[in-house]
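Field log, afternoon session.

UNIT: design team B
ACTIVITY: writing a sequence onto a fixed backbone
BACKBONE:
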């Protein structure tokens, strides 16, 4: 029997929702038969024997969190050995019009100097002013970001299934070259 492929799901988070999205992704990958490790990007992470990595962050003022940017920068040579799939959460993605999606994609353009994602997923996140620290609260008020929980597990799971099919197709193509 073929050995299970190992996939890392690494996330950055401030208030837990991107961790939740990482868990939905990880659980779906396990259901599809992969050997999955879900890990915060601040933890010690071994990338030596993975076959693919899903790496994600929430948007903060249009960018990935500093620790997520730092992770892809400092680990780029290890990450570039395998397909990397980026996932991004943001409150603006709850309204996925062209303008909001283009803005979210800028965050991926910025990290593309280190890794070129095989695919990028953009998912609506969650925000609750009650949980925010003082400086984030001020920023959120200034940016007129409203509270809400827009996480859509089914959408995330469908994206994981589609992404894994694309990964398999790509692998088969490479084998035939
Ligand atoms: C300080 C701050 C800035 C944010 N900036 C953006 C932004 O630029 N674009 C966006 O779509 N969402 C923005 N958000 C919303 C978060 O991306 C969203 O709530 C996300 O789900 C939070 O993830 P977390 O719970 O893992 O920290 C911001 C939230 C905070 C607190």
């Amino acid at each position: 029997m073929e050995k299970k492929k190992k996939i890392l799901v690494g996330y950055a988070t401030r208030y837990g929702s991107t961790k939740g999205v990482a868990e939905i992704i990880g659980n779906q990958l396990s259901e599809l038969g992969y050997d999955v490790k879900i890990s915060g990007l601040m933890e010690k992470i071994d990338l030596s024997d993975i076959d693919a990595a899903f790496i994600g962050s929430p948007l903060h003022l249009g960018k990935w969190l500093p620790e997520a940017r730092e992770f892809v920068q400092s680990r780029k040579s290890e990450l570039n050995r395998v397909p990397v799939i980026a996932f991004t959460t943001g409150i603006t993605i709850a309204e996925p019009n062209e303008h909001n999606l283009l803005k979210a994609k800028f965050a991926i353009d910025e990290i593309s100097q280190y890794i070129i994602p095989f695919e990028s997923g953009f998912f609506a996140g969650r925000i609750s002013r009650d949980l925010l620290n003082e400086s984030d609260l001020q920023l959120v008020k200034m940016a007129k970001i409203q509270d809400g929980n827009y996480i859509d597990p089914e959408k995330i799971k469908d994206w994981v299934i589609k992404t894994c099919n694309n990964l398999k197709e790509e692998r088969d193509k490479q084998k035939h070259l």
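LOG NOTE: The helical segments are 17-31, 66-74, 76-79, 98-111, 134-142, 153-176.
NEXT ACTIVITY: expression trials, pending approval
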